[in-house]
Amino acid sequence: EAGVTQSPTHLIKTRGQQATLRCSPISGHTSVYWYQQALGLGLQFLLWYDEGEERNRGNFPPRFSGRQFPNYSSELNVNALELEDSALYLCASSFGMLFGDGTRLSIL
Amino acid sequence: GIQVEQSPPDLILQEGANSTLRCNFSDSVNNLQWFHQNPWGQLINLFYIPSGTKQNGRLSATTVATERYSLLYISSSQTTDSGVYFCAVEHWGGGSQGNLIFGKGTKLSVKP
Asked: In this complex, which of B43, B97, B104 lies closest to A56 when CB atoms are compared?
């Protein structure tokens, strides 16, 4: 059984650009959770999608958004990138919180 | 919101030693999990343990929900146990479902 897959592994952007991160949950899992792990800030909840709907979001500005597709994969979009958006972005699958390996986003 | 405090923040062990990591939380929880983040950043789910005791090989965990703490025991530590151990809790009230609150972690270094 394939685990949670995230792409890309690394992403380098400049300030003001947009970034798109992708996540595929474990087959059969309908929920996807996004977390940000920024240096010095720890792991923070970003978004929860289930059955195609946004169920909850953390304390992040609206330029952090996403969606979940009919196959339950998910995208996280970050607009108007700022230096402090540099972080490891982790996606987790359903109730067991099985995490992918993350996307490391670097803002130059 | 719920506060999660982990102790100690750093721990250095000699290979073969045992250790106990602690997680205190400030309110009742519906979900408590322990994770290990290895030096490459991979976050591995160790235990789902909102109450009671579980064991998995050299690792075991106990949560006393009424006293709002959880303990993670590592026995006969190995160098591969190095990394950061996180406790995370979830409280379903007040629109917080789906939001795991992570502690700051315990950084464990196991020396050969």
From this structure: B97
